Structures are given as C-alpha cells and as structure tokens.
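Final report, closing paragraph on structural work. Over the funding period we assembled a curated collection of sequence-structure pairs, and we close with a single example.
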Amino acid sequence: MGKGGEKRYFDREFKCEAIRLMNEGKRTVRDIAKDLGVHPNLLHQWRRNYRTDAEQAFPGKGHLAPAEEEIRRLKRENEALREEKDILKKALAIFSKHPG
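Its predicted structure, as stored:
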C-alpha cells in the first residue's frame, strides 16, 4: 500500500526497469526501492516473477497469464455444460413420466 492506504499500480515497463537496475548491481536494492518509492521486498518479488517466466510476468492490471485465463474460461464453459446437462436430465424425466 502506498501512503495514505491507497493501492498503487505499476506497469510492466516500470517493473522491468526496476529489475534492470537491480541486475546492474551498481546500487543496492534498498537504494533502488527508496528512489522508486516501493518496498525492497516488492522489488525482489518482481524479480522472482520475472525469472520464473519473463514473457508472462506482469500481464497487467486485471489480466491473467494466458494459461490462467484459459483455465478460467474452461471452468466457466464446464459450469455452463453442467447446467445444460441438468436441464436436459430434468426435461427427460418430465417427458418420461407423461407419454405423448
């Protein structure tokens, strides 16, 4: 949280630049964090995320990595299919009880 309790958001470019500064090794992480106005632990977290998967790191505010987005989409689709199946089961039960 930033000063006054407001949540701050940093774009991918900002985070990548912070990581670049850390990787140069010319300054301490503490000094870089102070200049950028963030906590040193946050810089370490960004660097870990970047090292894990540089291409998918920092997808943006409100966005998920493509694999996570696909999982979310498939879960929604799965739920819709379950609901359709339940409706068809109920319809079959109704029509089975009352022949034509």
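The longest helix spans residues 66-97. The chain has a mean pLDDT of 82. We thank the funder for supporting this effort.
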